[in-house]
Design a protein that fits this description.
Layout: H1 3-10, H2 14-19, E1 22-28, H3 35-42, H4 55-67, H5 74-90, E2 93-101, H6 112-126, E3 131-139, H7 146-155, E4 163-167, H8 179-187, E5 191-196, H9 202-212, E6 216-219, H10 227-235, E7 239-242, H11 244-249, H12 261-266, E8 271-273, H13 278-281, H14 285-294, H15 300-310
Parallel strand pairs: 1-2, 2-3, 3-4, 4-5, 5-6, 6-7, 7-8
The protein binds zinc ion (ZN).
Residues 26, 28, 167, 195, 218, 276 line the site of zinc ion.
């Protein structure tokens, strides 16, 4: 046990919490730095998000109205990722699996090559401090767009991305629509992840994991609705990359003390603690640990165990 981290939680010593090595395995590049950094860049304050939003739809309303108008040029979206790396390093994150949406290629005259150039330059510059593992982000709605699906398939051949993730409204496409893409990513040795069960539906979590042969699930908190699904995830060592503040602010969970991550953990499922979209949810990984401790969800020793386990592949 790392008693420093345990002591830091008990003493509410944020600098000491930050100094302990941590991972962030669930972070979307587009909103990956805190709002303050974007405000500094645009030279004015921006309206913060409401404390409660109505799911992904509510989040999209806020993002469209307040954030997106400032995120329309390549220089700014590159600034966001670079600032996010600084934020993560400052927070003691040593492994960052950051999801780069396939639509990002549209910001570059040379498409995917431009994405690669920027990501590889950042990896090289920050390598001593942080292991940036680029993840290919697939929004579910592109299943209906053959051009973007083809681009995603090409992206798998670049040797740049170490994992793949699927996200956005679950009803926008069934996992069958991306089965071929996931089979290709799996054959390339990539880690396979998808958002599922963020807002209910335990059965769909298991179905998606089986169909796409997922290694890990982003959120997956609805597994708590089914003892069978929880047992199955635990038996198959499927890790859930949970983002507590995101779940509370998007009203998947009423308040932090009631977060089902406790139940998932008690059922033997490997869990990690992550940020999701720091520009919207305004929490670092250290903050998320601190919040869970203060809300009484886990003991300091349990959180230290979760932190240490997250630094290694699932056993
Ligand atoms: Zn997410």
């Amino acid at each position: 046990m790392n008693s420093d981290f345990v002591n830091a939680l008990s003493a509410d010593d944020l600098p000491a919490l930050k100094s302990a090595p941590k991972v962030d395995l669930h972070c979307h590049a587009f909103f990956s730095t805190c709002l303050r950094n974007l405000e500094k860049r645009v030279g004015r304050t921006l309206e913060p998000p409401p404390a409660k939003m109505d799911g992904l739809g509510g989040m999209h309303v806020y993002a469209t109205d307040v954030l997106d108008p400032h995120l329309r040029d390549r220089e700014t979206i590159e600034f966001v990722v670079e600032s996010a790396l600084s934020d993560a390093i400052e927070d003691g994150v040593v492994v960052l699996e950051m999801s780069f949406d396939i639509r990002r290629a549209a910001y570059y005259a040379d498409g995917l090559a431009g994405v690669r150039r920027h990501v590889e330059a950042l990896r090289a510059r920050y390598r001593p401090q942080i292991d940036l593992r680029p993840e290919l982000g697939i929004p579910r709605q592109i299943a209906a767009c053959p051009e973007l699906m083809s681009l995603a398939s090409q992206a798998l051949e670049m040797g740049l991305f170490t994992s793949i993730d699927l996200y956005d409204h679950q009803h926008a496409c069934a996992p069958e629509a991306v089965e071929t893409l996931y089979a290709k990513a799996g054959a390339a040795g990539m880690k396979l992840k998808a958002h599922v069960g963020e807002f209910g539906g335990a059965a769909e979590i298991r179905r998606t994991v089986e169909l796409l042969e997922l290694d890990e699930v982003q959120h997956g908190i609805a597994a708590c609705e089914s003892v069978e699904v929880m047992r199955w995830l635990a038996a198959n060592r499927i890790r859930l990359n949970v983002c507590p503040t995101s779940n509370v602010m998007l009203d998947a969970v009423s308040h932090l003390a009631a977060h089902p991550v406790r139940l998932l953990y008690d059922n033997g499922i490997p869990v990690t603690i992550n940020t999701d979209d720091p520009m919207i949810f305004d929490q670092s990984v250290s903050n998320e640990y601190r919040n869970l401790y203060r809300a009484g969800v886990f003991s300091a020793a349990e959180l230290d165990g979760i932190r240490r386990a997250s630094l290694a592949p699932v056993a």
